[in-house]
Amino acid sequence: MSQVKTKKVIIDPHPTLHKECKVADPKSQEIKDLLATMRATLKEWEDGEDRYVSVGLAAPQIDEPWRVALVRSDFHNYDKRDFYALINPEITKYEGSPIQDDESCMSVHGLHVKVPRYPKIKVKAQDEEGNEIKFTARGYEAKVIQHEVDHLNGLLIMDRALTENQGGYFREMDPKTGKMIPLTQAEVEKRGIFNK
Ligand SMILES: [Zn+2]
């Protein structure tokens, strides 16, 4: 098998991260190649220096504006490095009360914010063969899928972040010590990373 090429994970601010993605044809060679590139890119990212486990990747994060995302198959055993594909995913139902929890993103350098996500969702998508798939996702998997679908709609964690008034918080990892440093909303806004 020939070596699959990888791409760089783009970091905000980058215009592709703020655009709505296009409907993808799972049967096209372009989308098959894109999925192979995304998988190879995730493995390379996880193997990189000072990197962590990734739970998902959306195509726009490698500057490919398609409605394609990968989600980790097993959130209990991170030695398993399988990712399933969601092509043209839609969340058809949200259930329960949103839970506000810490979130970060490979495309948002260092920043951790508090984001509300629903604990249970119904998902409709296509798989890699182009078959329609429907399933219910709960807990952490539901949170990851909401994050990835946001990417396909051009939304980042800052667009969903709770403000200080709403009980939210902003934190950043100190690259030297790995410790989380609290940031005020004003400090975050000064960096110009909020869309709106
Ligand atoms: Zn992300």
Structural overview:
The chain is of the alpha+beta class and 196 residues long. The chain has a single domain (15-108, 117-162), classed as Peptide deformylase (Peptide Deformylase, Alpha-Beta Complex), CATH 3.90.45. 22% of the residues lie in helices and 31% in strands. It has helices at residues 29-47, 139-152, 157-160, 185-190; strands spanning 56-58, 68-72, 83-95, 99-105, 108-117, 120-126, 132-138, 170-173, 180-183. The radius of gyration is 17 Å and the shape is globular. The model has no long low-confidence stretch (mean pLDDT 91).
Q: Keywords for this structure?
A:
Peptide Deformylase, single chain, 22% helix, 9 strands, alpha+beta, globular
The tally of structural domains comes to 1
CATH superfamily: Peptide deformylase
The succession of helices and strands, N to C, reads HEEEEEEEHHEEH
Query: Residue share in helices?
Result: 10-25%
Task: State the CATH topology.
Answer: Peptide Deformylase
Sheet with most strands: strand arrangement: 1-2-3-6-7
